[in-house]
Amino acid sequence: MEVKIGVQHAPREIVLESDLSAEELEAIVAAALSGKAPLLSLTDIKGRKVLVPSDRLSYVDLGEPSVRKVGFGAL
Fold first, then answer.
1. 59: left (phi > 0), else alpha (psi -120 to 50), else beta?
2. Do the beta carbons of residue 54 and residue 33 sit within 8 Å?
3. What is the pTM for the complete model shown?
4. Which Pfam families does the record associate with it (predicted)?
5. Which of 9, 15, 25, 58 is the most exposed place for a label (fewest CB within 10 A)?
6. pLDDT tens digits along 25-59
């Protein structure tokens, strides 16, 4: 699942791929936004950990990864 995280006062969003389902990711984000967790902590498919302070979250976009087409075939 592709996750895009907007951070306040940051010009670029954080984009990562996660093995978690949409429901699991939503629960993690909801815990961070409710104040139960001071950090939004996610691990991508390569094992890198992303930590964002909960009070700096602007938005979190959960979606399926886009399939990249390779070659010269017709669109």
1. beta
2. yes
3. 0.79
4. DUF3107 (PF11305)
5. 9
6. 999 999 999 988 899 999 999 999 999 999 999 99
